[in-house]
Amino acid sequence: MRRSGSVQHARDLGRHDHVCWSYDDTGDFLVRVREYLAEGLALGQRVRYVAVGADVDVLSGVAGIGDALASGAAEIRSLSDTYQSDLAVDPHAQVRAYAKATEEAIADGFTGLRVAAEATPLVRTPAQLASFLRYEHLVDRYMARHPFSALCGYDTTRLDEPAVARLAGVHPCANRPAPFRLHAAAGGAGREVVELGGELDASGHELLGELLERIDPGPGGLVVHAPELTFIDHRGLLLLADSARRRGGDLVLRTRATGAARLVEVLDIPDVRVEPIP
User: Fold this and answer.
1) In Å, how far from its chain's centre is CA 57?
2) Residues 211-232: tens digit of each pLDDT
């Protein structure tokens, strides 16, 4: 199981969890980094801190950090060593890099890889943000299936609210409320599977349309697993259905939102099937 929804701290997170942590106080974010990585060490994971000018002093106070750094259980990397920080990230290449690092951690006897990254410089321009949203979705898909987890930090004093909302929207967990979440889920053969949670009304249509653009096209339509979806309006259904049709297939919506099936019936939306979740 993966956690989803709002989080207030960086503890009690598992091997597949993915958190967007937006902040306006660097000191508070570093507290979260330390608690997140300390827990990872306790769980037998290899942990990594990634930031501009990453420094070992940032992790002082993490129990056993000196021995962990010496043994390779903990790593500190500068942002430029991990990402092309002056360019838009290559989404597929970056996922491959983290997949390789995860496999190496497992081969070295760890239970997985856990990364805390201060990623603000990677999303400063529209082109960077567009590429990084796609990357966040693709890496989240990898996390859903492999023992890799991440805490992604974004400085709200350097990013505008729409950018932060988009970044929170593609993470299963965030420390600040988001209208809805659209992120990866365990897939089925030949179909893209995403998870949708929260409330989707008129205020979220533009954001939903943009986030759907970040999901890689694939044959077989789209399955939307939505056990935590509390509301969806007709326009939200149409946006999901249009996205599925662009992929050459239909839409399956699995939800407890009782009005969804009625909307599909009344509006006669083609190629949409609502499967109630008990």
Assistant:
1) 28
2) 888 776 556 678 899 998 999 9
What's the rounded Cα separation, in Å, for the pair 181 and 183? 6
- In terms of Cβ atoms closer than 10 Å to its own Cβ (0-12, 13-18, 19+), residue 126 is exposed
Fold of 184-276: Transcription Regulator spoIIAA (3.30.750)
The proportion of the chain whose per-residue pLDDT surpasses 90, expressed as a percent, equals 63
User: What's the confidence (pLDDT) of residue 135?
Assistant: 94
CB atoms within 10 A of CB 56: 12
Question: Residue 253's beta-bridge partner residues?
Answer: 224, 274
How many Å is the Cα radius of gyration of the chain?
19
Q: Using an 8 Å Cβ cutoff, are 171 and 249 in contact?
A: no
Residues near 187 by beta carbon (within 8 Å), at least 6 away in sequence: 141, 144, 145, 193
pLDDT at 7 over 80: yes
* Residue in 146, 192, 151 with CA at minimum distance from that of residue 16: 146
SS3 228: coil
Find out if CATH 3.30.565.10 is the number for domain 5-177: no
DSSP-assigned letter for residue 89: -
At 80-123, the pLDDT tens digits run 888 876 789 999 999 999 999 999 999 999 999 999 999 999 99
* Cα–Cα dist 23/153, whole Å: 7
Structural domain spans, the chain: 5-177, 184-276
